[in-house]
Design a protein that fits this description.
The chain has two domains: 159 residues, 2-Layer Sandwich (Dna Ligase, domain 1); 69 residues, D-amino Acid Aminotransferase, Chain A, domain 1. The protein is 37% helix and 22% strand. The chain contains eight helices and nine strands. Helix 3 runs antiparallel to helix 5. The longest helix is centred in the N-terminal third of the chain and has 16 residues. It is globular, with a radius of gyration of 18 Å. The model has no long low-confidence stretch (mean pLDDT 90).
Length: 236
């Protein structure tokens, strides 16, 4: 299949939906508030790579070919249909590689995400940008550093309804420094989370005891104690 709904995905669909897509499907099944969306599968990427001549090329050449070639007609039609079914809203277009969200390598921020995309032509342009980003210098160097093979590597693309956030951030369900459970770490910024994961700004930082709800550490005022307890409970 070229396009699949997030609602039908599980962790076993990583080869088809990439790490991000598969995990978002799991979160929706578990009842977490994940925005509606769909995934353009790795099969679509393989077809696009073949059509553009990117298969077997150097990273630099593959990147140029994927970015500069039109989305194949069958894929474009499937994306248009899925986007219309979503209501044609503003969306986030997010890379989801098969080598991503791994136990020893998160790949956070290595491939592209395009926010606030509106209109089918803009969505298709963002999809091509995500495909090409699998071969950007940053992602290639990260894979080499973590000894992740590029053999058989593919990229799915997640398209989700855009959330106009007052604040956004990252929740660690265990202390990322000590590994201690029942101690959630939360980092937050005002507005969208892209500036946090890209390292553009220094976030507020909080730690919360997930058993008692006590706020153990507070550096910043973006989130209230009640919001921190609610977030910590989600990850408990």
């Amino acid at each position: 299949m070229l396009v699949r709904s997030l609602d039908e995905l599980t962790a076993t669909d990583l080869p088809d939906a990439g790490g991000k897509g598969a995990n978002l499907g799991e979160l929706r099944r578990a009842g977490f508030p994940v925005p509606d969306g769909f995934v353009i599968t790795t099969a679509a990427y393989a077809l696009a790579a073949e059509a553009s001549g990117a298969t077997g090329e150097t990273p630099a050449s593959a990147r140029v070919r994927l970015a500069g070639s039109p989305v194949p007609a069958g894929i474009a039609d499937a994306v248009r249909e899925a986007y219309r079914a979503l209501g044609a809203p503003h969306v986030a277009v997010r890379s989801s590689a098969t080598a991503e969200d791994l136990p020893d390598a998160s790949f956070a921020g290595q491939q592209d995400t395009v926010l606030g995309v509106a209109g089918t032509d803009a969505v298709l342009d963002a999809v091509r940008r995500c495909w090409a980003s699998l071969w950007n210098d940053r992602a290639v160097a990260y894979r080499q550093t973590h000894e992740v093979s590029a053999r058989g590597l593919r990229l799915a693309v997640v398209v989700q309804r855009m959330v106009e956030a007052q604040s956004a951030g990252v929740l660690f369900t265990a202390d990322p420094i000590t590994g201690r459970r029942r101690r959630a770490a939360i980092e937050a910024v005002r507005g969208l989370g892209e500036q946090l994961v890209s390292g553009a700004v220094n976030p507020d930082h909080y730690t919360v005891n997930t058993r008692s709800g006590a706020v153990l550490e507070r550096r910043g005022d973006i989130l209230s104690d009640a919001q921190l307890r609610e977030l910590a409970a989600l990850g408990a």
